[in-house]
Amino acid sequence: MKILALDTTSGACSVALYCDGQTSEQFVRAERDHTRRLLPMVDRVLADAGLKLAQLDALAVSRGPGSFTGLRIAISCTQGLAFAADKPVVPVSSLAAMAAGARKLHPSWEGAPIVAMLDARMQQVYWGVYGADTPSDSLLPEAVQNPEQVVEKLRDSGLPQSIYGAGPGWHYFQEGEAPSETAAAVVKERDLEVPIRARDIAELALPLWQSGATVAAEALEPLYLRNEVTWQKRQKIRSQ
């Protein structure tokens, strides 16, 4: 089984290859350099493995949520590669990938749910909750909300008391921010530095591919969650 995964969701650019049980990755933090870096990284990962695009079984990509521009770069690149090689695409949640990465970084978190969170700007966050048994699917619907709403939803969720937080969206809950005292009541520990990585997208894509959760390249669409903002940006782009 061979899956090539791409991600430019946030401040990093990464490409990974899952090949018969082994995962290799190119990862670099590049806030505004994704477009120039991405395809050379794809070439390098494939060359290192001695593979050509046609030998892949599928491609995988972060479907979002995340940066509007970042999502479009990775998705457009994935579409082009998938068209060229006539391969299916596995869309993977960026929040699920972040939670999977956090679980690797923190073995002590074991099987507890992880609340992955990205900064959605405008004093809001993208968030979801991921368990060890179903790492690709959020235990609560992925959403964009303000921090106070997140705390309220977690308190009413019936999730176990020991849950953990991952991702830069948790900065709203740092000391001095409005909901900081309530964050401690719903999560046991937080790691704000966990990145979204293509290696986690590739590994999450494997069971999704096996279950048939793929799309054709032309059907691949990002998931923004904040649809009204996305619509305004699309309208602005089309009018230029």
UniProtKB/TrEMBL annotation:
UniProtKB keywords? Acyltransferase, Transferase
Matching entries from CDD domains are given as: ASKHA_NBD_TsaB
Q: Which residues form the Gcp-like domain?
A: 30-152
Q: Which InterPro entries match?
A: ATPase_NBD, Gcp-like_dom, T6A_TsaB
Q: Does the keyword section mention Transferase?
A: yes
Pfam short name (any one): TsaD
State whether keyword Ribonucleoprotein applies: no
Instruction: List the GO molecular function terms.
Output: tRNA N(6)-L-threonylcarbamoyladenine synthase activity
**Protein family (similarity comment):** Belongs to the KAE1 / TsaD family. TsaB subfamily.
Q: What is this protein called?
A: tRNA threonylcarbamoyladenosine biosynthesis protein TsaB
Gene (UniProt): tsaB
